[in-house]
């Protein structure tokens, strides 16, 4: 892997305002990062994000339940 070059610039407004400005410039992989950030933002927020989190939680619950059921069956099986 090649290290990504990035620079961070911080500037404070000199007119007494309380707003600060921070800008980040990434290296050659900036297009990929913005693409992944866009997909992540779309899948992890809003109604779609909530739906995916709920479905993931339900799927995880059933996977653990079935794994526990099968494990318990073999552990407590009569000989």
Automatic annotation (TrEMBL):
<dbReference type="GO" id="GO:0009986">
    <property type="term" value="C:cell surface"/>
</dbReference>
<dbReference type="GO" id="GO:0042803">
    <property type="term" value="F:protein homodimerization activity"/>
</dbReference>
<feature type="compositionally biased region" description="Polar residues">
    <location>
        <begin position="1"/>
        <end position="10"/>
    </location>
</feature>
<keyword id="KW-1133">Transmembrane helix</keyword>
<dbReference type="Pfam" id="PF15875">
    <property type="entry name" value="DUF4731"/>
</dbReference>
<feature type="region of interest" description="Disordered">
    <location>
        <begin position="1"/>
        <end position="37"/>
    </location>
</feature>
<keyword id="KW-0812">Transmembrane</keyword>
<feature type="transmembrane region" description="Helical">
    <location>
        <begin position="54"/>
        <end position="75"/>
    </location>
</feature>
<keyword id="KW-0472">Membrane</keyword>
<dbReference type="GO" id="GO:0005886">
    <property type="term" value="C:plasma membrane"/>
</dbReference>
<protein>
    <submittedName>
        <fullName>Small integral membrane protein 1 (Vel blood group)</fullName>
    </submittedName>
</protein>
<dbReference type="InterPro" id="IPR031744">
    <property type="entry name" value="SMIM1"/>
</dbReference>
